[in-house]
């Protein structure tokens, strides 16, 4: 019996070929990683390979997963926007705004040799009374903690300029529903700044600075201002923002977006299922 050899260029495709990880599966994996508290991508892929094979027939290695996640940053941001606008909280008339440090290193050698040098810089963390080297995450949220807009800047970036930049980048945020109230801290000050917010149809509520007369709405400020501090704490304590482990601009951006999307997904699901606390992650972190 002779065996006929088929030429290589006529070989049929493999009948059983591992299908690649789809974009939807990649985003799902990223959200699950953030909610379940896996800061190490290597450990997460190992866990998923052992326990989630029935949900994800194909899983890349750690390096492949890392590359795909960095390239999908725009996709993650788009999914976050779609989910946020699909909640009943998107039309809230009150926003809170603040920035929180995203530390990227603690040694002088890291600051000198890191790929983040030039973007990351030294800044002051007033609430902890210490300096840090890294970035700042600027957030605009609803009173229920839904992220509306965000930006990642150097540690010394002016908060007022960053907020105006976010509004210019996404003019549709205020175009549909002008007249919103924005609650910020003492750093969001200035006649020109408040005038430009008013042109956007936004009313600023902040505490009076030293030497200023009492401002309207100061009695409402403290209980509502605490909301943004609580949201920042959710990112840092429950979603491990301070342990992002990003070493490049793309890596840090992907990991921050991953955590923002995880919070938005939880709020979206809580809103759809009628949960009493929209920002609760208790049902998703185990």
Write the layout of secondary structure elements.
Layout lengths: L22 H14 L4 H11 L10 H10 L1 H13 L8 E12 L2 H6 L7 E5 L4 E13 L4 E8 L4 H11 L2 H4 L4 E4 L7 H9 L2 E4 L12 H21 L10 H24 L14
Parallel strand pairs: 1-5, 5-6
Antiparallel strand pairs: 1-3, 2-3, 3-4
What do these coordinates show?
The chain has 286 residues and is α/β, with parallel strands linked by helices. It folds into two domains: 20-71, no CATH class; 91-246, Nucleotidyltransferase, domain 5, CATH 3.30.420.10. It has helices spanning 23-36, 41-51, 62-71, 73-85, 108-113, 159-169, 172-175, 191-199, 218-238, 249-272, and strands at residues 94-105, 121-125, 130-142, 147-154, 180-183, 202-205. Strands 1, 2, 3, 4, 5 and 6 form a six-stranded mixed sheet that branches. Strand 3 (130-142) and strand 4 form a beta hairpin. The radius of gyration is 23 Å and the shape is globular.
* Radius of gyration from the alpha-carbon trace, in angstroms: 23 Å
CATH homologous superfamily grouping of the largest domain:
Ribonuclease H-like superfamily/Ribonuclease H
What CATH architecture label of the largest domain applies?
2-Layer Sandwich
Count of domain modules? 2
Q: Largest sheet at a glance?
A: 6 strands, mixed
Dominant shape: globular
Question: CATH topology of the largest domain, which one?
Answer: Nucleotidyltransferase, domain 5
Strand-residue proportion? 15-25%
The end-to-end distance, rounded to whole angstroms, is: 61 Å
Return the string of H and E elements.
Answer: HHHHEHEEEHHEHEHH
Q: What is the CATH C-level name of the largest domain?
A: Alpha Beta
Low-confidence stretches: 8-12, 14-18
């Amino acid at each position: 019996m002779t065996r006929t050899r088929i030429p290589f260029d006529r070989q049929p495709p493999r009948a059983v070929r591992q299908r690649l990880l789809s974009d939807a599966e990649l985003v799902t994996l990223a959200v699950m990683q953030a909610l379940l508290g896996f800061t190490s991508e290597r450990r997460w892929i190992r866990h998923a390979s052992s326990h989630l094979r029935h949900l994800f027939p194909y899983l890349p290695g750690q390096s492949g997963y890392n590359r795909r996640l960095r390239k999908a940053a725009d996709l993650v941001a788009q999914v976050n926007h779609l989910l946020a606008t699909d909640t009943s909280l998107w039309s809230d008339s009150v926003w809170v705004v603040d920035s929180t440090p995203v530390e990227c290193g603690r040694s002088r050698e890291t600051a000198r040799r890191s790929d983040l040098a030039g973007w990351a810089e030294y800044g002051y963390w007033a609430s902890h009374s210490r300096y840090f080297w890294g970035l700042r995450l600027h957030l605009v949220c609803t009173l229920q903690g839904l992220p509306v807009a965000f930006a990642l800047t150097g540690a010394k970036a002016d908060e007022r300029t960053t907020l105006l930049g976010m509004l210019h980048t996404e003019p549709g945020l205020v175009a549909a529903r002008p007249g919103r109230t924005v609650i910020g801290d003492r750093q969001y000050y200035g006649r020109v700044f408040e005038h430009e917010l008013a042109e956007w149809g936004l009313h600023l509520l902040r505490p009076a600075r030293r030497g200023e007369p009492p401002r309207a709405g100061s009695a409402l400020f403290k209980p509502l201002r605490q909301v943004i501090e609580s949201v920042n704490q959710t990112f840092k304590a429950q979603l491990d923002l301070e342990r992002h482990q990003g070493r490049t601009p793309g890596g840090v951006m992907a990991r921050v977006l991953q955590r923002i999307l995880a919070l938005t997904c939880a709020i979206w699901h809580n809103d759809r299922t009628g949960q009493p606390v929209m920002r609760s992650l208790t049902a998703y972190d185990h």
